[in-house]
Structures are given as structure tokens and as C-alpha cells.
Specification:
It is built from ten helices and twelve strands. The chain is an alpha+beta fold and about 350 residues long. Mean pLDDT is about 90; it is low at about 345-350.
Length: about 350
């Protein structure tokens, strides 16, 4: 997470909002093999699917913290490039999710336009698994910084995955072997900019609720706005959404659907969304930095543990790429269905 200096530049997070009760795990303790820390992380990944990772007290964590501060400054410059530049480097869905996603292109659960934009930078191009994606000149100047952040982030992800595998009585390299950075994958570094919310009409969801497809997501943000769903509750229940309070030097870590699939549901991928920031923070533009890790494209999605479940193994015989396409198509059908229901509702009200 960003340092205290960036937190001092924004309004304070309010004390009167409901927040998620998240475990804080020390990266230094995980690296040293501390058993209680490994146990606490496993429990967090089984119950909530989210935890805070404290980067202090470790050389890797401190290097990552310094890079996060630099990338927040770079992110503001990149996300405020002129509209015509962003259009030139816009993503080309479904061919590619790399590049800029414009504000308002997707819908929220209320069938209104979203209130955020992002830029995706692919790991494959940074590590020369493929050609580097087309980039504006200003982003090219930051390639060494992005690449260093990627290497450090992957080291953190490996530490998390090896600890989880060991805790589940699997070989330590079980999950890391399925997502090596040197093989093609959908792993990206993502910059996100969400609009401020000064007006009553702005007090709504910015990004629709979802789970992440991949294995592990590392998120750095300063402003509130991220909300996670209280496990077992309905997304339609407005009281079931809990804010995540950002903490200096702490990454927000969450597991993705791939980890759920491989472990037969022993680990959890929780539903989350971006809402308007709480309190006076809503008056400020919200910038975030994320690293979303996915399995390498040819990895098997066969269940590795948790075989006692009677549910069908959805990954049997599928590569990661095939499994992700299957999930993406199912998600699109669900979004289209909800959008149609929303349109019918509008018709009923007129």
C-alpha cells in the first residue's frame, strides 16, 4: 500500500461507517515461515477471501511500497491523458482487454453507466512473453518502473501461494507452477480512476459487484470505496456491503475464482464492488493500482484438492484460457439478462 505521505494528502476515512473485519498478515512473517501467520492467512482466505498484507519490516515489501508511491504519481499522469490519446489506445474487447477502458462503457447493477475508467498493462509484453502492447510515449517512460513492480508483486504472490499450498497439505509449488510469469497469461497491472461524488445523484455504485477470475489480486489504494459483501448475504441487501479501510503500507489481497476452482471450494473468492468513497473522501478523485494474476493459459483447471465435494468439477479437461472464456461468456449472459430486466422495468414505469 502507499506510504503515510499519500494518506496525509486526502480527507480522513470516517469512523462512522461499517467496515469489514479483515485480518492483517505480515509479509515478513510469511517469508520467515511463521506458522501462526500462515494459519491466520489460511483462515482469512477460507472465511472472507480478503486480507491486509503489511509490507513493513521486509526488504521486498519496502521496495514494493516505494514503487507504489511512484506509480500513484505516474497513474495520475496516465489516467489524465487527453481523451483522444486514450481513444487511440483503447482496449479492443473481446480481442484484447489491454489498454484504456472508457468511463461509462459498462453498466452497474441499476443498469446505469459505470463511473470509472481503467488502463490495463499486460504482463506478457513487459516480460517479453509477447510483443509489448501499443502504448502512448508517456507510458513507455515508466516501463522500467512497471516491470520492477511486476517482479516484486509476483514474488509476493508466490509467497502467498506457497504458504496456502503448504497449509492445504499440497506441495509448496502447486499453485506457483500453474501461473509462472514466464508463460503467456492474462495477468495485468491495472490503473483505475473513479470519479468524485459531490452530488446526491453520484452516490451510487461505480463498478458493479463481481469476483475476480484469476488467482490472486494485489490492490493498493488510499481512498475508501472498495466494498466487500458480507459472506452469505445477498448483493441486493444494501446493509450487507462493508467498506474496506485502506491502511498505509498494507496491500489489500483477495483470492480469485481460479483458487476456488483448484481447491474445490476450500478457499473463497468474495464478491466486491467499487462504491462512492465514504465521508468527505467522496469529493476526491479515487486512484487505485492493482496487479491481477491469472493462471498461465495452458494450465489445467482440474480440481487439485477438496475432491470430497459432490459438485461437478467445472475445470475438468479445460485449460485456464478455455475456463476463463467459459466464465466470461456466462458473466456476459447474466449481465445481459439483468440489463434486459432493467429495461423492462423502465418500460413498466413509463
Amino acid at each position: 500500500m502507499a506510504s503515510e505521505a499519500l494518506f496525509q494528502q486526502i480527507p480522513p476515512f470516517p469512523e462512522d461507517v461499517r467496515t469489514a473485519d479483515m485480518s492483517t498478515i505480515s509479509l515478513a512473517s510469511l517469508i520467515s515461515g511463521d506458522a501462526p501467520s500462515a494459519k491466520n492467512m489460511l483462515e482469512a482466505c477460507q472465511k472472507l477471501g480478503f486480507f491486509l498484507l503489511d509490507l513493513r519490516g521486509d526488504k521486498l515489501g519496502e521496495a514494493l511500497s516505494a514503487e507504489i508511491d511512484k506509480l500513484f504519481a505516474a497513474g495520475k499522469e496516465i489516467m489524465n491523458l487527453p481523451h483522444d490519446v486514450k481513444e487511440q489506445y483503447k482496449h479492443q474487447i473481446p480481442k484484447s482487454f489491454l489498454g484504456f477502458k472508457p468511463r461509462g462503457e459498462a453498466k452497474t447493477e441499476s443498469n446505469e453507466p459505470d463511473r470509472f475508467e481503467w488502463f490495463n498493462l499486460g504482463q506478457d509484453g513487459l516480460l517479453r512473453n509477447s510483443d509489448l502492447q501499443p502504448l502512448p510515449p508517456v507510458i513507455k517512460t515508466y516501463i522500467p518502473l512497471f516491470t520492477s513492480f511486476l517482479h516484486h508483486g509476483q514474488s509476493v504472490v508466490s509467497t502467498i501461494c506457497q504458504s496456502l499450498a503448504t497449509s492445504l497439505s499440497l506441495p509448496p509449488s502447486t499453485f506457483t507452477d500453474l501461473q509462472p510469469p514466464t508463460k503467456p497469461s492474462g495477468t495485468v497491472i491495472r490503473l483505475i480512476k473513479a470519479d468524485p461524488s459531490p452530488n446526491p445523484t453520484d452516490l451510487r455504485t461505480s463498478m458493479i459487484h463481481h469476483t475476480d477470475f484469476g488467482t490472486v489480486t494485489l490492490l493498493a489504494n488510499v481512498l475508501g470505496g472498495l466494498q466487500i459483501l458480507d459472506p452469505g448475504k445477498s448483493p441486493a441487501d444494501k446493509d450487507a456491503w462493508l467498506y474496506v479501510r485502506p491502511r498505509p503500507h498494507c496491500l489489500v489481497v483477495n483470492l480469485g475464482d481460479a483458487m476456488v476452482q483448484w481447491t474445490g471450494g476450500l478457499l473463497k473468492s468474495n464478491v466486491h464492488r467499487i462504491n462512492y468513497a465514504p465521508g468527505m473522501q467522496r469529493l476526491v478523485e479515487r486512484y487505485s493500482l492493482a496487479m491481477l494474476v491469472r493462471p498461465e493459459r495452458e494450465a489445467s483447471m482440474k480440481r487439485l484438492v477438496g475432491g470430497e465435494t459432490e459438485e461437478k468439477d467445472e475445470g475438468e479437461g479445460l485449460t485456464a484460457w478455455e475456463w476463463e472464456v467459459k466464465k466470461a461468456m456466462a458473466l456476459k449472459r447474466e449481465v445481459d439478462r439483468k440489463g434486459q430486466e432493467g429495461n423492462e422495468g423502465e418500460t413498466d414505469r413509463t
